[in-house]
Amino acid sequence: MPNLTRIANADLSIDVSSLGAEMQSITTRNGKAWLWNGDAAFWTGRSPVLFPIVGKAPDDTLAIDGTSYPMAQHGFARRREFSLEAATPTACRYALEACGETSVVYPFDFKLSVEHSLDGCTLTVASEVENRGDKPMPFGFGYHPAFLWPLPGGEGKPHTVTLGNGAEPKRQPLEKGLLSTGRTPSPFEKGRLVLAGDQFLDDAMVFPEGAGDRLTYAAEGGPALEFRFENLPNLALWTKPGAPFLCIEPWHGTAAEYGGSRELKDRPFTTLLAPGDSRRFAFSVTFPG
Question: What is the model's pTM?
């Protein structure tokens, strides 16, 4: 069975599972819960970490230097047991290393570390991917946290996502889970999007470029969550129609393109990591005090 690690301060309490290094709960000092509870009637995920791909591969098959490998949507990290490397009252770090089982589907020597830490009302999730092998390592990486919709205290109010840069990024629709070749006009107006369930009838809203490195998810006249992103240029918003959650997903890497290459290195925004190198990806969210 997975183990749970709890970190807490005077403002926040967070539970993190060893399975996938995935958050299981976020509670503020007033007892309000903010993270989706994983109800299987809608979606069992809560805050999965996506590695070594984001999104789908054609027929769930990747090509790496011409050799095919099976790879499920969003990669294998979210289904693997991580080891607890370090823990303090306000931070914990889990790690996943390459092994015989991972090499069958991803032939690289890697280490993925995921650290959750608290500072006042702010939660930061920072991950590091290391290439411990002797050849360049392609991968995609992303976060997939699901927050309640409506937010606690925001029942009955319109909910919005507002981009800090005020931009109107174009959307790239999904076709059978893969990125279509064209882009459609932005649903944002001067950086602001009023959320509605029917916006997700055709799967996630994916914004490959231009969303910036910060946003606010809020109930009008109610609570607001402030997000910051580091080295995560792609953004997706997703829910299942009728489900009471919104996933705010910052990525570095996207699904493969429909009709495009199966090669991992050819997927949009793939990172190609040199031997001995590492790369950091992080997001933070500040909750109402």
Answer: 0.97
